């Protein structure tokens, strides 16, 4: 199977995943408090998992200390302090580039 | 019906168009990051065994950054097709939960809107739309706003990726542009980690990623996410921060 076919099949699957919650919870039914609370935790848990996997792991192994750790730590600190998306991305990217340039 | 000058398609009434533009404006600051992601993905494709056309089309088919990157990784590792596809789906499984989080809002949209908006759903888009839901309860204004956020973000993401693949050769792998993926997500997720259950959910998810890094192909992230949600769920919410929605983008920008 060529990569193109794999991407196409995965694309159909991903669309159905995106549609699933909207369809299954359609109708005017209110979410129970418990479900609402669990859903509010999806972004903190799922996105943190993706970030942790990208920054702390490298092809499944623990990443050795690098510009990734430092720049991510600075971006997180800045995001906590200022809560400003553009500033976080801009400064985080600049710090990462500077660290790479400095040879880290 | 009066139509303002800016409107190129008179089918769209001014109020809807205004909401569309408000949504697009909200997503606008993310465009540079989205384009950088495209360039990063292009650099990854260029150094992989995946041919550039397939790489560019993967964004059109999937629009699922982390899932696509993981699939390319698996293809390069020579994994069987079933495993490659499963990896993409497992990493994208979190969209089901984002989809569910928007369900109460989208339930009031016509079916064709639900079918169309579903394609554009991503971590970032759903967080931005949920913020809006809290400050504007009108379903018509909401869906035009969602459309603005979604088309802006998905449009630049997809075209950025296509451009990135085309330009892939100009960006050396040593630039490690993949860093932009966690960077964008940090900027988006930190502002929604505001109470104790959310902090616990994030810390548990992080720990499980490290402990469970040897779990079979790509399932680490979904296992970590579910563990984080379960742990945060067990933590009682503090009452003082009600209502504890994320800040509006205006609040966030002015902070």
Protein model, in words:
The complex is a heterodimer of chains A (104) and B (255). Chain A contains five helices and two strands, in the order αααββαα. Chain A is mainly alpha-helical. Chain A folds into two domains: 64 residues, no CATH class; 40 residues, no CATH class. Chain A has a two-stranded antiparallel sheet with strand order 1-2. In chain A, strand 1 and strand 2 form a beta hairpin. In chain A, helix 4 packs antiparallel against helix 5. Chain A is extended. Chain B is mainly α and 255 residues long. Chain B has two domains: 171 residues, no CATH class; 44 residues, no CATH class. The interface between A and B is large, with 75 and 102 residues.
Mean pLDDT across all residues of chain B, rounded? Answer: 81
Helix content of chain A: over 70%
Low-confidence stretches of chain B: 241-255
Order of the strands making up the biggest sheet of chain A: 1-2
Question: Mean of residue pLDDT of chain A?
Answer: 88
Judged by helices, strands and strand pairing, the structural class of chain B is: mainly alpha
Largest sheet composition of chain A: 2 strands, antiparallel
Distance from N terminus to C terminus of chain A (CA atoms, Å) equals: 40 Å
Rg on CA atoms of chain B, Å: 19 Å
Q: What helical percentage do the residues of chain B reach?
A: 55-70%
Summarize the helix and strand pattern of chain A as letters: HHHEEHH
Query: Which spans of chain A have pLDDT < 50 for at least 5 consecutive residues?
Result: none
> Any idea what the shape of chain A is?
extended
Protein topology:
The complex is a heterodimer of chains A (104) and B (255).
Chain A lengths: L2 H22 L8 H8 L1 H15 E2 L2 E2 L4 H16 L2 H17 L3
Antiparallel strand pairs in A: 1-2
Chain B lengths: L13 H14 L3 H17 L4 H11 L2 H12 L4 H12 L1 H13 L4 H9 L3 H13 L3 H29 L12 H10 L6 H16 L7 H16 L14 H6 L1
